[in-house]
Amino acid sequence: MFFAQFILMDLFICGIAVPRLVSFHKYITITVDYPGFPQKQGDDVATMTTRRRRRRRRRRRRRRRRRRRRRRRRRRSRRRGGGGGGGGGGGGGEEEEEEEEEEEQQQQQQQQQQQQQQTTTTTTFLILPILAYDT
């Protein structure tokens, strides 16, 4: 009985505890190799990931701006098209439709942002352990 316990403990220590400790230690002190690696100061994985995130955020902002511009153009053209012919009553109806469309677009944007955030977090969590075990 004692022997079985010993084997189980051994397996636990070798299989779970030690690798976790090692990988955790490497999470903190891990450095990324790149051309001219020794000259520059060592980059932590944390800094690398934050840089990537920042880049992505910038890209997102740019995309958002572009989308907004496109939308504005479309709306203006619609208003001009409908305003001349329909008069007062027609204009009101069109505005309501536009508001609904705006809400839909905002919801879509939020969903897309959430998806992007999820993907970034999952990728970072997938990449970090792999890097930790490689080094």
TrEMBL record:
Superkingdom of origin: Eukaryota
Residue ranges of the region described as Disordered: 34-124
Composition-biased stretches (Gly residues): 82-92
Region forming the signal peptide: 1-17
Biased composition (Acidic residues): 93-105
This protein's record includes keyword Signal: yes
Compositional bias per record (Low complexity), positions renumbered to this chain: 106-124
Basic residues: compositionally biased ranges: 50-81
Keyword Signal: yes
Keywords, sorted A to Z: Signal
Protein name in UniProt: Uncharacterized protein
Organism whose genome encodes this protein: Plakobranchus ocellatus
Organism phylogeny: Eukaryota, Metazoa, Spiralia, Lophotrochozoa, Mollusca
